[in-house]
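[Archive record]
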Amino acid sequence: MAAPEDARMTDPADLARRVREGDIRLYELEEHADPETAAAARRHLVESETDADLDTVGDYAFAAEDVDANVENLLGAAQVPMGVAGPVTVGGSAADGQYYLPLATTEGALVASVNRGLSAIRAAGGATARVTDSGMARAPVFRVRDVAEAQAVVEWVREHTADLRAAAESTTSHGELLAVDPYVVGDSVFLRFVYDTKDAMGMNMATIATGEAAEVVERETPADLVALSGNLCTDKKPAAINAVEGRGRTVSADVVLPREYVEETLKTTPEAMVEGNTRKNLVGSAKAASLGFNAHAANTVAAVFLATGQDAAQVVEGANAITTMEVRERGDGDDTDGDLYASVSLASLEVGTVGGGTGLPTQSAALDVLGLGGGGDPPGANADALAEVIAVGALAGELSLVAAFTSRHLASAHAELGR
């Protein structure tokens, strides 16, 4: 029970002392003080026990009471430098126009590299991008007696998808159940529920909705729920199912760079970049049994995720990308003057413009830089546009890195930037 308002404590040192003495647990501080004082007490406690200086950690832009849905045992904030790359023209199904790309990172040379790639795309007149599929998945696992019972559950699910849709959608005014895909492994039945979550990334929405639908499955079939997530979703883990079926947004971006630009500005050739991409990103990745066939798509995905308040752990799936390059002949019969075609396809980019960390002050500001904060019109348009812009940013990073190593400039670029 929270302390009465007039009995709330205001001295962080005294609160820290009571935690040390066992009178108050670390997570109970907000019951005895306002959120700002509770956070200050935690810093005081940790400083006294670790000799750390947490003054900078305690210097943050949000109100402590506004982040209770984002973090527990609030101590302060971790600041990550944010740069900007661009502008670049994106011709997408949702993103249409010029965009500056905010990138939060501690990796020197990353923003410069993406900016160089965006400059190349800008010189080509912009990139094309499309979200080709969208759906957030949650896959509970059920126990059955044997495979015959498993078949009965699967048949019931296929015949009563409408009932499951009604149950799932009763929990949300925004989400829509798109499909329920069954998988059987012996006496385990997995049901992969896939939702349209509009402008929200939607994992929590999908979890709550699936929980309601799972109760219907238990009530109407012999199946017993074991776990609301059976890892066939798959969330925050590298998984082939996401590379094939997708999760979140499936998005691709491409561009054709004129040969003259590649040779004169990037200091390489289309042929060299095609070979470098094939041998490194495709053959090398295949030999390594990688789930991503790209140079460093995770760099751009992670930097935009941190800048815009996405779930950072989902970079695991978001970087599940394939980069392709080929020489495109100009149609004049001369096979020595072809341009460079390049694309990147991200199978499972899980992004949103509402909910989660998107409402925090600096993250909200980064979304405003993109013009994509809040819900879109129609619903889902802003999240689609964010996915398309990220794909173009990832394409820029791929172009820059492949050009760097095929021109033998990768090490010198890092040395020049002092990284």
